[in-house]
């Protein structure tokens, strides 16, 4: 998910380009205004954390771009492309390392495990919104 800060800073194309250049396949994508309810469900694992309320408010404050990418090892690889949660410690060359300075404005969220990805895909997308296709060239 490209978060509100990533969308507002005009980084949607850059993020998509990095995933495309790596060789992953885009199978779902939508720009959407997130409800508080969806944001709370998505970040349920953090509900006891002090930053939870602010995080939910931020994610539902302006549009995000939700995406589903497919490919061998995509979850682990995407986390490397995205970089560490805190952009200040994320390696240069990663998305957060190249474009961010704040943990609360770290541009993008990526699923942390295959199981989480499945849960998040089900939360964010209906099956009709996902394309089943393989690149042929
Ligand atoms: P994300 O990968 O979306 O998962 C949880 C998010 O919580 C994380 O990225 C950060 O944007 C946010 N987060 C983590 N720690 C803090 C913090 N200390 N203050 C504010 N936001 C945080």
TrEMBL record:
Domain Nucleoside diphosphate kinase-like, chain residue ranges per copy: 1-132
GO biological process: CTP biosynthetic process; GTP biosynthetic process; UTP biosynthetic process
InterPro entries for the chain: NDK-like_dom, NDK-like_dom_sf, Nucleoside_diP_kinase, Nucleoside_diP_kinase_AS
UniProt catalytic activity: a ribonucleoside 5'-diphosphate + ATP = a ribonucleoside 5'-triphosphate + ADP; dZDP + ATP = dZTP + ADP; a 2'-deoxyribonucleoside 5'-diphosphate + ATP = a 2'-deoxyribonucleoside 5'-triphosphate + ADP
Cofactor entry: Mg(2+)
Keywords assigned: ATP-binding, Cytoplasm, Kinase, Magnesium, Metal-binding, Nucleotide metabolism, Nucleotide-binding, Phosphoprotein, Transferase
Pfam families for the chain: NDK
PANTHER family assigned: NUCLEOSIDE DIPHOSPHATE KINASE
NCBIfam families the UniProt entry points to: PRK00668.1
UniProt name for this protein: Nucleoside diphosphate kinase
